[in-house]
Amino acid sequence: MPKRVGILAIQGDVEAHASALARIGAVAVPVLREKHLADLDALILPGGESTTIAKGIERLGLREPLRGFADSGRPLLGTCAGAILLARESRHHPVPTLGLMDVVALRNDYGTQVDSFAASSDPGSSLAGLRCVFIRAPRLVEPGPGVEVLVRVDGEPVLLRQGNRLACTFHPELTNDPRVHELLLG
Q1: Of the residues 17, 36, 168, 173, which is catalytic?
Q2: What is the Cα–Cα distance from 162 to 6, expressed in whole angstroms?
Q3: Tens digits of residue pLDDT in 34-93
Q4: 132 is catalytic
Q5: Which of 96, 121, 144, 174 could form an SS bridge with 125, CB 3.0 to 4.6 Å?
C-alpha cells in the first residue's frame, strides 16, 4: 500500500511536492484541517512565504495538531519556509514557529529573490551530489546537541535531522532527485 504523505496546503509549491512524491510511489494529501492529519504516514511543510503560512496555521487552528503530529513519531519535513516553521525560533523579521527542532532560522539569509541560486552539496555530505535550489532561503544556525547535519553546501548546513524531523533550507521538490523525499519516508 502506498505511503500517504500530507502537504500543508496553506501556501507554497504543494503541486511540486505532490509530483515528487508520486515519482517515488507515495500519495500526496493536501492538509488544511486537523482531520486531514489522521491517516498520514508523513507530513511536509512546504516552502512559500513563512509569514503567510504561520498566519494560516493560527487561523486554521493547526498549531497544536501539527505539534501533536510530530510528537506521534511520524516523520516531518520542512522545506525553506517549512524549515523556518520547524525551528525553535526565527530571526530577521521573526515569525511564530512551531518549536519542533532545536535550531534557529535566519529568514532570507541567503538574500532576496534575485539572489536565488542552485548548488551541489559538499563532498562528504550524506547525499553527495545533491542539487540544491535556494530561493530566498533561510540559514539554519545554532543547532542543539540532538541535531544532525546531513547535507552542507559551501560548509553551511542545509539539511538537518532531529529524530523524526527534517529541516531543509532548499527546495528538493524543484529537482528530479528523489533522495530528500525518500529520506522522509525511509
Answers
A1: 173
A2: 19
A3: 999 999 999 999 999 999 999 999 999 999 999 999 999 999 999 999 999 999 999 988
A4: no
A5: 121
Q: Which of 17, 36, 171, 181 is catalytic?
A: 171
For 43, residues 6+ apart whose C-beta sits below 8 A from its C-beta are: 5, 6, 7, 8, 31, 37, 66, 69, 74, 75, 76, 77
DSSP 21: H
pLDDT tens profile 131-174: 999 998 899 999 999 999 999 999 999 999 999 999 999 999 99
Which residues span the domain enclosing 118? Answer: 4-185
pLDDT at 111: 65
Segment holding 131, helix H or strand E: strand 131-134
Q: From the candidates 80, 132, 168, 181, which is the catalytic residue? A: 80
- The answer to whether 90 and 101 are in contact (CB under 8 A) is no
pLDDT computed for residue 110 by the predictor: 73
Assess whether 173 carries a catalytic annotation.
Answer: yes
Enter the pTM of the model.
0.95
Single-letter code of the amino acid located at 134: F
Q: How many domains does the chain have?
A: 1
CATH number, domain with residue 59: 3.40.50.880
Instruction: Write down the residue that cell numbers 563532498 correspond to.
Output: 123
